[in-house]
Amino acid sequence: MITKPFVCVLLALCAFEASAAAPACVKLEQGWVRLTPGAMRMAAGYARIRNDCAGEVVVIGAGSKAFGEVSLHETTMVQGVSRMREIERLPVAAGTSVELKPGGMHLMLMQPEVPLAEGAQLPLRLSLEGGTKVDGSLQVRREAPAP
Length: 147
Prior knowledge:
The chain has 147 residues and is mainly beta. The protein is built from one helix and ten strands, in the order αββββββββββ. Strands 1, 2, 3, 4, 5, 6, 7, 8, 9 and 10 form a ten-stranded mixed beta sheet that branches. The protein is globular.
């Protein structure tokens, strides 16, 4: 009978998924993406990553069903020239937050799978070192939200 092995595999997958769930002490807050003019193939996303855990967490990646590719980047000024580089590890100390904001660290959202419409909520998942995930959303906005 094929049912028993199938049920065992399904239960094992559910247990694995539950073990990879994000600790409730890590949150993605105030997520937003700037509305792009026309059909641009790239957008920027911003949010606050809050760590209320007892120890440091490290963001090692990001993804979204709304975009083909998502990565963390940082914009810096080097001798008066704006430069952007990818961030492979973003540590967030216990009891602190990291701001992803215009002109600094941000999400590069490439190859949109859906048209961006003002007010839409787009899913975002951060991957943490150790295999845990943090789910949140990005609201499409014309301007940055008030602080």
